[in-house]
Amino acid sequence: MDELAHADLGPRPFARWSDPEDDATPVRGVPVWLARRLGDLTPRAPVPISAIPVPPSGLSPDAAAEFRQAVGPAYVETEPEARLAHAGGQSYTDLVRRRFGYDVAVPDAVIRPASHDEVLSVLAVATKRDVAVVPYGGGTSVVGGVEPVDGGHRAVVTLDLSRMDRLVDVDPISRTATFQPGVTGPRAESLLAEHGLTLGHVPQSFPRGTIGGFVATRSAGQASTGYGRIDDMVVALRVATPVGEIRAGTGTPNAAGPDLRALFTGCEGALGVLTEVTLRTRPTPEERHYEMWAFGSFGEGLDTIRGLVQDVDAPDVVRLSDEEESATTLATQGPKGRLAALLARVRGLRTPALCVLGWEDTAEGVRRRRQAAARSLRASGAIPLGARAGEAWRRHRFEGPRQRDILLDAGVLVETLETATTWSRLRDLYDAVSRALRDSLTAAGTPPVVMTHVSHVYPTGASLYFTVLARQLPDAAEALEQWESAKAAANEAIATHKATITHHHAVGRAHAPYLVHEVGELGVTTLAAVKAHLDPRGILNPGVLIQASPR
Amino acid sequence: MDELAHADLGPRPFARWSDPEDDATPVRGVPVWLARRLGDLTPRAPVPISAIPVPPSGLSPDAAAEFRQAVGPAYVETEPEARLAHAGGQSYTDLVRRRFGYDVAVPDAVIRPASHDEVLSVLAVATKRDVAVVPYGGGTSVVGGVEPVDGGHRAVVTLDLSRMDRLVDVDPISRTATFQPGVTGPRAESLLAEHGLTLGHVPQSFPRGTIGGFVATRSAGQASTGYGRIDDMVVALRVATPVGEIRAGTGTPNAAGPDLRALFTGCEGALGVLTEVTLRTRPTPEERHYEMWAFGSFGEGLDTIRGLVQDVDAPDVVRLSDEEESATTLATQGPKGRLAALLARVRGLRTPALCVLGWEDTAEGVRRRRQAAARSLRASGAIPLGARAGEAWRRHRFEGPRQRDILLDAGVLVETLETATTWSRLRDLYDAVSRALRDSLTAAGTPPVVMTHVSHVYPTGASLYFTVLARQLPDAAEALEQWESAKAAANEAIATHKATITHHHAVGRAHAPYLVHEVGELGVTTLAAVKAHLDPRGILNPGVLIQASPR
């Protein structure tokens, strides 16, 4: 996966995903087009980082000394720069706070262990000294998963796992690879490419995200239909907890009681720190082919892709946009509206639903599977738009966060949220969440554009991914409240429809209050009982996954 | 799945799997052939059931009255017949005890709830009255999962779930079906067949096993390569615990923290009682095709089936026998050794390894996938033996337990055990476990026949299933000790090789002491912490999964 191996972005700027000057690929017409739809926007540059106040580190000298002993003096950083660099994740609200210099929290120190044993030592010191520990991979959480929250403890440190970036072992016979948690997506692909292998796990966070983060958040990549979710790839885990080590997984599925891999896949650093992850790999595909199709409507598209995943042989990537998202694509990509005009004039499709389909396989596999899918697609009346549009999507698929930077500069509220449910409930859920978002933001005086796609399909159901854009309110507190209200309305709609609060973004702090709708009071207290057993002082990522109980 | 819908066996005899008189399919030459290999066997009929002493029920009148209130007076049975009918599972040691009338434990009562709420009520009474509860589906456990063990509580009751046998709901769009736990395998297939659907989950226990049991033991069916393990089919669960209800699963995979479905899939009734199970279904396959191939050796077969599952498109059923098991098949099945003679004379294969491959798919799917597999098989030098031998295996695939009855009557020790590991470690594990079994039984003066097959293949590894036969020692205590020593030797070999203690038989009481090798001390105490939270008095299936701690 050569192209993937080179997706690494280098250090992240403070209030952006990527440095605009480093951005080799120009981001195209989206912002201009959107500005027209959202009304008068007020461009807004981030405040300089020097304007962000950083309080002195609250770490006691004794605790600091013991942490230094655990990982070496150079790897306990208390300077403002390192602490600011770990001031939360990449959600819209994280970025708003950093851009406005409003309510930016920083950890008391950043600790960079180099091994499983060093992680165990750090957790022992933290337990003894009552210091909260926030495990940190690529810092790409969009659900408040890496915010430096002390949870009532004496201090909070960020446990930056970037030094643990080795490929520990490859088993070419069993096609598994064991990584340390801090290996980024591109680095993992680059290391595996030397063995002719790939993970094929490409979430939007891929360029900065880490193996540990992918597993801790139970993520799903854009090609999850073909390669599986990260849950499907986890063969074994090694976990450091405040009370010792857990190893889960023996190389194959088995029946040895509840599968403990599932307790730590998705633990979000609240039950332990992943220190070694063994994943299933596959041979690098011989061929990749992406193409685009147009359906008469989102509904027709849903029925057809359901047929593909239930009865045919689903492509490895399936991404169906609703009419609104398709209109944006048609208006802002490709040869200036030509495709839209063609669809309207020749096919009578004025509001099509576009769909990207991708195959990564042997040449023969791609050929055969494309043919089988094409038969179903044509039977449903879908119109092929060819490989150029599909390949364009693939080339630009990690650009979302860069486009967001530009939109934020332009004064746009821009955020995404996602859920999933069964095929039979999908349409109602889509309507309810879209309506909740529109109603909330319209009531705030900022009518939004809400665009949706389905990008993860299963035999039983599918995900829904909403992108929301609106004119950002000018004041930081107002801007935060503007989005938080809309998000709460969407969450209520999700809970009402018994869908999941998160298909692939994880729970973090943002969704923790809604977990009870999904797993019930007893589900939440069961997770809390596990946490109490493994983390008796509650130092691990307080408030993530399980809401903070009063201390 | 018509054939499957008719596999139901009716009531189970006390010391056998099936009533020999009901046995429509004659079991062929295996016993005769085996007798020759094992030396002088002494035929041994079970003692009459009337010879089994049944103590009076130890249930207090108050507890009995409250249980009657919970489920209705007719459904709390304390008569000897009902209690004897629930005296443990179907392991070799279970059957030896019942056949010899030696150390047969019976519950103090059998309770048959009709609903989730009744199960909750029973658990509340049991908690209040300090009565152990053993959840019971088809009673087919081979690991001591349904033995009536009081675990130091005042009494023990068996919670027979056979009245909870409804198909609660079918969602044809999402292709899911919700069952009560007591639905047997054949009944589930029969109910689904009305909707054109199937589960395709056919473990050896299928004719008597139940949906609840399949999920509680995290089982894998013979067609797991195609249809997936039960873990892969579980969409949602409803669980009754002594402290209330848990619902897990929202219809699709998600990222909402640790997947709680995995805590109850494989909970073996020790963490809760499954009261509703929603499973993924598939359309009834258009065509089924089974065929047999011969490899030059077990090793060649392993390399080739690994290639099928890693690089081609594995058949839905893959079952590769080692040379010893293949010799038994050739000696005892088919037209009296003709196949063996043919292989030896024409192909020079004196000790072939036979392999059953099966496809269940659309006619086109079967054709295409068979062709692709055949290319790989021929390239590896495998010899096609045709569909007749494959179909013979399919027709007789649920006969193992009947053959065992006959072997037990003939005075044979006959038991199976299984494990799994990665492809790279599989051969060493095979050698070590086979050797441990042979050495132990040879030391007991009863040199065994040990036959092995691989029947569940994954991209990362595969299962190993051992069938052990030896001359049974004449005394009940000696016979039990004879097998328990061999099993312990095998378990040690499994632990030494870091393989799983059970690929699909579950932990039960038989494997509970070995779980610590697999998930570590902290893994075991974490499960115990979950149990303490959900079952604070420890009434649920004491000693199963988690070894009894001193009370």
From TrEMBL, chains A, B:
Protein name as it appears in the record: Alkyldihydroxyacetonephosphate synthase
Gene3D superfamilies the record matches: 3.30.300.330, 3.30.465.10, 3.30.70.3450, Vanillyl-alcohol Oxidase, Chain A, domain 4
Positions annotated to bind FAD: P135, Y136, G137, G138, G139, T140, S141
Co-factor requirement: FAD
Pfam family, one: FAD_binding_4
Family per similarity comment: Belongs to the FAD-binding oxidoreductase/transferase type 4 family.
Site feature Important for enzyme activity, where: R319
Active site annotation, chain numbering: Y465
Oxidoreductase as UniProt keyword: no
Annotated stretches, region: Disordered: 1-23
Chain ranges of the FAD-binding PCMH-type domain: 103-284
Keyword rRNA-binding: no
Residues at which substrate binds: R404
Top-level taxon in the UniProt lineage: Bacteria
GO MF entries: alkylglycerone-phosphate synthase activity; FAD binding
InterPro entries linked: Alkyl-DHAP_Synthase, FAD-bd_oxidored_4_C, FAD-bd_PCMH, FAD-bd_PCMH-like_sf, FAD-bd_PCMH_sub2, FAD-linked_Oxase-like_C, Oxid_FAD_bind_N, Vanillyl_alc_oxidase_C-sub2
Gene Ontology process terms (BP): lipid biosynthetic process
Keywords from the UniProt entry: FAD, Flavoprotein
